[in-house]
Each structure stands twice: as C-alpha cells, then as structure tokens.
Amino acid sequence: MISDGVRTIWCRELKRDDISGDDDFFALGGQSVIMARIQGAYIEELGVEVPMDQMYLNPTVASISAYIASLGAATR
Questions:
Q1: How far apart are the C-alpha atoms of 75 and 61, rounded to whole Å?
Q2: Burial class (CB in 10 A: 0-12, 13-18, 19+), 2
Q3: HSE on the CB side for 50, CA within 13 Å?
Q4: What pLDDT does 72 receive?
Q5: 12-66 pLDDT, tens per residue?
Q6: Nearest CA-CA partner of 45 in 17, 12, 15
Q7: Closest CA to 48 of 62, 63, 33, 69
Q8: pTM
Q9: For residue 60, which phi and psi values (nearest 5 degrees)?
Q10: What pLDDT is recorded for position 1?
Q11: Which domains does the chain have, with CATH numbers?
C-alpha cells in the first residue's frame, strides 16, 4: 500500500516512529533538505517522481499518498 511506503520513508527521514496519516510534515520538523531526501526516496523506493510543489501542497502522509495513487503509481 502506498501510504505504508510513504509513512516508512517519512519515519526514517524525520527520525520518528509515531507519524500518523494526518500529521503535517512541517509541524513534525520537516524542512527543505529532508523534503529533498524524501523526494529521492519516492523515486527510488516507490518508483514515482513527485514534484516539489506537490509535496508542499500535500504535507501529510494521507494527502501525498492520495496524490501518488492518483498517478497510478505502483510500489515496487
């Protein structure tokens, strides 16, 4: 499931294990360097390129997962 993959990436990059689907990336301490690492992980681990503007527009696991699903992306 895409949201599981997204959550795994966020937990690793934000160094937290308690991220829920509606937690806001920025409220969790996210910033541009971490966002760039997450963007790379999406490509490498989920096989989908997510533009930076979409990452800003979809700052929760649930919303970015829905965006990725709307692309028809499949996890590897």
A1: 15
A2: buried
A3: 30
A4: 83
A5: 999 999 999 999 999 999 999 999 999 999 999 999 999 999 999 999 999 999 9
A6: 12
A7: 69
A8: 0.89
A9: -120, 160
A10: 76
A11: 2-70 (1.10.1200.10)
Query: What ranges in the chain are assigned the alpha helix state H?
Result: 2-14, 32-41, 52-57, 61-70
Q: What is the DSSP letter of 71?
A: T
The residue written with tokens 């490509």 in the block is 43
Q: Quick one: DSSP state of residue 28? A: T
Whose CA is closest to 22, among 53, 54, 66?
66
Q: Residue 75: which pLDDT band, with cuts at 50, 70 and 90? A: very low
R_g over Cα of the chain: 11
59 Cβ neighbours under 8 A, 6+ residues apart: 24, 25, 26, 30
CA–CA distance, 34 with 17 (Å, rounded to integer)? 16
